[in-house]
Amino acid sequence: MKKNKGRRKADTRRKKRLKAAPAAVARTKLPPVSAPQTQPPRSATPPAARRLSIDWPALAILVVPLAIMALLESLMSPPKPIAPPPTAWYGDLSREAMPVFPEPSNHAALAPAEAPLPPWHGKLALEAMPLFPEPTNHVARAPVEPPPAPWHGELALEAMPLFPEPTNHAALVPVEPPPAPWHGDLAIEAMPIFPEPTNARVAPPAVAALPPPICVPEAPSAAVSVPPSNFGRAISAAARAQTEDFVIYNARYFHIAYPGGDTQALYGVCTDVVIRAYRALGIDLQELIHTSRLGRGDPSIDHRRVEVVRRFLTRHGTSLAISEFAEDYRPGDIVTYHRPEGRISQYHIAVVTDQIAPSGRPLIVHNRGWGPQVEDALFVDRITGHYRLSREQVEAFQRTRAPRVSDRRRTADVSSTTRR
Length: 420
Known about the structure:
The chain contains 12 helices and 18 strands. It is an alpha+beta fold. The chain has a 6-stranded antiparallel beta sheet with strand order 12-17-13-14-15-16. Strands 1-2 form a two-stranded antiparallel ribbon. A two-stranded antiparallel ribbon has the order 3-4. The chain has a domain at 228-419: endopeptidase fold (from Nostoc punctiforme), CATH 3.90.1720. The radius of gyration is 64 Å and the shape is flat. The chain has helices spanning 2-20, 22-29, 47-52, 56-76, 106-110, 137-141, 168-172, 231-241, 270-279, 285-292, 306-316, 391-400; strands at 89-90, 93-94, 120-121, 124-125, 151-152, 155-156, 182-183, 186-187, 248-249, 253-254, 267-268, 318-320, 334-338, 347-356, 362-367, 372-375, 382-388, 418-419.
């Protein structure tokens, strides 16, 4: 009930406001109504006004193409003939109009041409020369005297032709034959123009064949004897020759033959560089180390361990002092290292070469994991041993410790089963 009363009051207030201001409410709610505008009918427009209204765009569309066509026709049409100039007057002659491009001889033909005066050649009055006279016209009128005959000793030759043969004059003079060459007591006849290479030569005396030069190979074999002074360089050359082969670092255990056994040439470790370098000179470190009883008695692995090789070199080779001077390391020396960062092994071995690096240190050959390499790494790692093994020391060891008959000789295949 209260709501309805409030609504009634609001309605009454709204009605009072509408009554108080009807014009304002009408303006806000309804648009103003304007009087209807009446246009006169089209027929009511005067005819004069209709004539003056021109549709210019339509007119331009019609006129412009016509103008363009007329312009093109005027440009492409041939030119109109030009009226001839008035008649020219030449003395008493009345000539017709000259053409636009008259011939150059038209005017010259009107005037009488006078004959040119004949040229004067001494006392001869020659006729008028042509425009392009022949070069022999004037020469033919004067008598040509023959040239005097050349004098060749007491012979008077006739006039030579224009192109004489090259042998005419030579045939008149007698040509003496060249003297025969003298070869010892033999008188050989005249040699032909292109003699054979053996005609005018006597076969040279046979020379005794010289013996072929002796070439020492870089990696000498077991049959070649190397003098003691060059033994270290021979070991160095045999080690450097291994750098030309492709070798994969493989530290696994291989069951190999004994003696003279080796892994496949495709595999190798750092000790194999030393073993193969000495084996190229006929020294088998596998047999020597196994005979020395310094390892565990396994000929397949004892000579491939750095510590076992060190013990053999210390006892049966020459153990040199470890020095920090590069001059103390000679070609063929064996150097052992300790590498604490090594993943497979912390022991390493290398061979000193006869090549000197730009730093002044000798290069070494070793296999650090990328195959045999020649590097300037003599003092890179900590040196644990410096050794030298000569052929005399090997022979002395073989005399004192000859292999026993009871030693087991292995003949197994090189690439047989492996074990850890």
